[in-house]
Design brief:
Elements: H1 4-9, H2 11-20, H3 27-63, H4 67-103, E1 123-128, H5 141-148, E2 151-152, H6 153-160, E3 166-167, H7 169-188, E4 193-194, E5 200-201, H8 203-208, E6 220-221, E7 227-228, H9 233-238, E8 244-246, E9 252-261, E10 280-290, H10 295-313, E11 317-321, E12 333-341, E13 346-355, H11 359-363, E14 367-369, E15 377-378, E16 380-388, H12 389-399, E17 407-408, E18 422-423
Parallel strand pairs: 4-9, 8-14
Antiparallel strand pairs: 1-11, 2-3, 5-7, 6-7, 9-10, 10-16, 11-12, 12-13, 13-16, 14-15, 17-18
Helix pairs in contact: 3-4, 5-12, 7-12
Length: 427
């Protein structure tokens, strides 16, 4: 969420930033809403002051035995009381209108973010690793998995519908091994604290991490009003909500492996084959809570941590910076890491690392304070995939496939696979 005071002082800057994102100007509308709210509040304050003064005058009139004046003042106080009750309801409506208008406003891109309309204008930052020369026409992951008898889409559809997968045997273990490998790497080498968070959150947590109200259609809701998490970013980030953290304790770095749930609203017809775009998937998520001065350096550090996963697995990838038109709602700047998928003959996203500035900190009232200072300021937050486990499984299958349809286990995962070096057809 953006600061309305900043918007009042910088209306042209807001509209220019929105234009970079391909959005319509909003400054005038927001300022008018804010002025209406402030004017209303001023009028209520004037009424309250008059009520207080009239109440005092009642006492004076009673002391002077001026019953007529006292009665007139009592009638005035009663009228003001009714006006205040009505006015307070109006104030709540104006507050809600302004809050909603601010809550659907995207974050301001950093000046260094390339301006562009869509993904075609993203900019490649680096490319790491060589695409494998398999010596044969590579298959896609679902062809490999089904031929091995270890990936079942039909049974998953029978019990859950489209966009679900059942993994069995060595492929199920390979996915588990990938997640364990990532957690061990991030906790032992990258300084993240492992967390096992809830998979359901309330409205406040979803709102505080900018998933509501804009993305409600992308989430699954339970019958008692909770939300299944679309990513562990939500509970990990919201751990700081409502707190004042000593700046000496920052940054706080968290990592979690969780199931994630997304309705995939608006993705009809995209990636319908295989397990690339699922309603339920596993992801290792990285979250950092930092001071404003360190958030940009933390962004580079987080991205490097995610890249290390792919480097250790020997998977070719490229890192791109998203342009303003392709960047996520709450981000100031985003790096996407795209892994090479031989079966698709394309790079596909496997991690997205974003710095959000104080956008989420303001929404969830998470602040920090230097030792000895009275003043507080909003924390900066960052999130990134470290990485998407299901997509990493796909990348391993396609990059390490053999001509006979078997899959070689990457060296880094062999200890997690009980020494297994090759995955063959289920017996």
């Amino acid at each position: 969420m953006l600061d309305i005071k900043w918007i009042r002082d910088n209306p042209a800057a807001l509209d220019a930033a929105l234009a970079k994102r391909g959005a319509e100007p909003q400054a005038q509308k927001l300022i008018e809403l804010d002025e209406a709210r402030r004017s209303h509040v001023s009028a209520l304050q004037a009424l309250q002051e008059r009520r207080n003064l009239a109440s005092k005058d009642i006492g004076k009139a009673m002391a002077a035995k001026d019953q007529a004046t006292a009665d007139a003042l009592k009638a005035e106080v009663a009228t003001i009381k009714d006006e205040l009750q009505f006015g307070e309801a109006g104030e709540r409506e104006l507050d809600e209108a302004l809050k909603h208008a601010l809550s659907v406003l995207p974050n301001i891109p950093l000046d260094e973010v390339p301006v562009g309309a869509d993904e075609s204008e993203n900019v490649e930052v680096r490319k790491v690793g060589e695409k494998p020369d398999l010596g044969f026409k590579p298959k896609e992951h679902y062809e490999l998995g089904e031929a091995l008898g270890l990936m079942d889409f039909e049974r998953a559809a029978k019990m859950s519908g489209a966009r679900f997968t059942i993994l069995t045997g060595a492929l199920a273990r390979l996915e588990r091994a990938l997640g364990q490998f990532m957690l061990d790497l991030h906790t032992s080498e990258h300084g993240y604290t492992e967390v096992n968070p809830p998979l359901m959150v309330n409205d406040a947590a979803a709102y505080g991490t900018d998933k509501l109200p804009k993305f409600g259609d992308d989430l699954f809701r339970t019958t008692d009003g909770r939300w299944l998490i679309p990513t562990a970013e939500v509970p990990l980030t919201y751990m700081a909500a409502g707190e004042i953290i000593a700046e000496e304790e920052l940054p706080k770095r968290y990592v979690a492996q969780t199931a994630c749930f997304r309705s995939e609203a608006g993705s009809a017809g995209r990636d319908t084959r295989g397990m690339l775009r699922q309603h339920q998937f596993t992801k290792v998520e990285l979250v950092s809570v930092t001071t404003p001065e360190t958030s940009l350096a933390e962004h580079e550090r987080m991205t490097a941590s995610a890249e290390t996963v792919l480097e250790r697995l020997g998977l070719p990838f490229r890192t791109i910076v998203l342009c303003t038109g392709d960047m996520g709602f709450g981000a100031q700047k985003t790096y996407d890491i795209e892994v090479w998928m031989p079966g698709q003959d394309a790079y596909r996203e496997i991690s997205s690392c974003s710095v959000c500035g104080d956008f989420q900190g303001r929404r969830m009232n998470a602040r920090c304070r230097k030792a000895g200072d009275k003043a507080t300021r909003f924390v900066h937050t960052l999130n990134g995939s470290g990485v998407a486990v299901g997509r990493c499984l796909i990348a391993v299958m396609e990059n390490y496939q053999n001509a006979d349809g078997s899959i070689t286990v990457p060296e880094a995962l062999v200890p997690y696979m009980g020494g297994l070096t090759t995955i063959g057809k289920a017996v």
